[in-house]
Amino acid sequence: MSDHRSADRLAGAALIAVAAIGMLAMAHHPTSAHSGSLNGIVHGVMILVIAIIAFGFAHFAVRRGLGRPAVLAGLVAYALALFGHVGAATINGFVVPAVAAHGVVQRDIFLFAWEANQALARLGVYANAAAFLLWSLDFLRRPGLEPRLIGLLGLAAGGVPALLLAAGLIRMDVPGALTAFAAFAAWAAIVGVHLWRGGLDREGDATVTPSQ
């Protein structure tokens, strides 16, 4: 098996596995700053999950070729999403519990933390949606039914949560975050299966880096 084929399988397996782990972590998301160590554990796991998903998508982008504008723009958008998601998880998972542990009770401080969390979470959703939409356009231009189906699913996975958020039909509280993450994780797993099965090699149009 060639080096790039092995790397595809590794990235694909990472996307599939952490999508499932992320959903499990989100299902145990605490609803209070006084949830003890569970708060840090859940948000720490989510940060790790997001980072591993970023690895999988970064590999996909490199293999597709960063010379393709939609692929490169998608990677930049996903970097913004990574910043937003990790920032939101850090505030709720570590900053707010630490402040609460110090006995701080001022409502304004917690309100500020909440608004900062919400702003970063919304950034994460919108940037994630932009990345998925751009990568889906790249899928749609590829030959074959499978890539085009993945592209259509990517348009839905990225666009629906962003539209629901923009319309005020969801907020980035626990139910809203679970809705958005479920859509994102589902498409991450789908792309992971595509990589695992050698989808890029079958089309013969992926860019292989010199080191590969």
Structure, explained:
The protein has 212 residues and is mostly helical. It has one domain (3-200). It is built from 7 helices and no strands. It has helices at 3-27, 37-64, 69-101, 107-140, 145-166, 174-196, 199-203. Helix 1 runs antiparallel to helix 6 (174-196) and helix 2 runs antiparallel to helix 3. It is elongated. The mean pLDDT is 88.
Mean of pLDDT: 88
Shape: elongated
Largest sheet: none
The tally of structural domains comes to 1
H-E string: HHHHHHH
Show unreliable segments. Answer: none
Number of strands: 0
Radius of gyration: 18 Å
Strand content: under 5%
Helical amount among residues, as a percent range? over 70%
| Count of helix runs | 7
Distance between the ends: 12 Å
Summarize the structure.
The chain is mostly helical. The chain has helices spanning 3-27, 37-64, 69-101, 107-140, 145-166, 174-196, 199-203.
How is the topology of this model organized?
Elements: H1 3-27, H2 37-64, H3 69-101, H4 107-140, H5 145-166, H6 174-196, H7 199-203
Helix pairs in contact: 1-2, 1-6, 2-3, 2-6, 3-4, 4-5, 5-6
Task: List its traits.
212 residues; mainly alpha; 7 helices; 80% helix; 0% strand; elongated
